[in-house]
Write a structure and sequence with these properties.
- InterPro entries: Bact_metal-bind_prot9, ZnuA-like.
- Pfam families: ZnuA (PF01297).
- The protein is an alpha/beta fold and 301 residues long.
- It folds into 2 domains: 153 residues, Rossmann fold (3-Layer(aba) Sandwich), CATH 3.40.50; 108 residues, Rossmann fold (3-Layer(aba) Sandwich).
- 51% of the residues lie in helices and 13% in strands.
- It contains 11 helices and 8 strands.
- The chain starts with a helix and ends with a helix.
- The structure holds zinc ion.
- The site of zinc ion (ZN) has 7 residues, from loops.
- The site of zinc ion has 7 residues, from loops.
């Protein structure tokens, strides 16, 4: 009798054990799926776009500057930085684009947080005059160069690999794909734009120096690099005179900007007003850059 019971008990015990294992594994699988997405916080839209291109569906992304808000004037509120206390990675552009970032990072208690300043290793353009004292030595609009955006995307990729090395191959492959898209776009417009005789752009705030450097263009702007203050009447007159002299066909203004000054200049010069997107507060990276370049090309033909 004892022997018989023993024979039944062993398979029963094994069965319970196996079923137990199975269900544990299932739970672990589901948990891992949720836990595996890396929590990444970025400062503003352009950083979000570059990070999305590399991080894809392996990351959970939070952007601090809300969509549609002017990035240069932004000050984060406590609820906007709360996401940082649990994040693995914080990515920001640097060079004065996020003057609030240093204080914010000091106020966060998160020892595991890795930080990437995306401008590093990029070929920077110097600021001039008062801007150096107020904001620092360099123009922060690095992402508006197709060439330098690849450098920034590479920094972001390295940051992601640091906090999530299991998905290294995924991030590397996304980076390759994104770089290829950028290279193709650059090649297409290099051919079109560099063959044109006109080289001058009139823009809202001086955000496009890097893009202009990529394509051998010259930027003239209503507001300075950090989009501060109302332009003086002297400055507006200078822009009108210049625009007449070089026969500007289009005066660009940014999405979200007040159209008044751009419209005044355009009217005086007999040009039209068109929008151009700095990617500071909205827009998908590749599509927006393509749209910008197409509009610039059309304005110069
Ligand atoms: Zn700007």
């Amino acid at each position: 009798m004892k022997g018989k019971l023993y024979k039944i008990m062993i398979p029963l015990f094994l069965l319970v054990f196996l079923v137990g294992c199975g269900s544990t594994q299932d739970t672990e699988k589901t948990d891992n799926k949720v836990d595996k997405r890396v929590s990444v916080v970025v400062s503003f839209n352009a950083m979000a776009e570059l990070t999305k291109a590399i991080g894809g569906d392996k990351i959970e992304l939070t952007t601090i500057v809300p969509s549609g808000v002017e990035a240069h004037d932004f000050e984060p509120k406590p609820r906007e930085i709360a996401s940082l206390s649990k994040a693995s990675l914080f990515i920001y552009n640097g060079l004065g684009m996020e003057p609030w970032a240093k204080d914010m990072l000091k106020s966060i208690d998160n020892k595991n947080l890795q930080i990437i300043e995306a401008f590093k290793e990029a070929d920077l353009i110097k600021n001039s005059g008062d801007e150096i004292g107020e904001h620092g030595e360099f123009d922060p609009h690095v992402w508006l160069s197709l060439k330098e955006a690849k450098v920034q995307a590479n920094n972001i990729k390295e940051g992601l690999i640091k906090v999530d090395s299991n998905n290294k191959d995924y991030y590397e492959s996304n980076y390759k794909e994104f770089s290829k898209k950028i290279d193709d776009l650059k090649a297409e417009y290099e051919k079109k734009i560099t063959s044109l005789e006109r080289k001058d752009l009139v823009t809202g705030h001086a955000a496009f120096a890097y893009l202009c450097r990529d394509f051998g263009l010259q930027q003239h702007s209503v507001e300075d690099v950090f989009a501060e203050g109302e332009p003086t009447s002297q400055k507006i007159k200078e822009l009108i005179d210049l625009s007449k002299k070089i026969k500007i066909k289009t005066v660009f203004m940014e999405e979200n900007a007040s159209p008044k000054v751009s419209e005044t200049i355009a009217k005086e010069v007999g040009a039209k007003v068109d929008t151009i997107n700095t990617l500071e507060s909205e827009g998908d990276y590749i599509n927006t850059m393509k749209e910008n370049l197409e509009k610039i090309y059309n304005s110069l033909t």
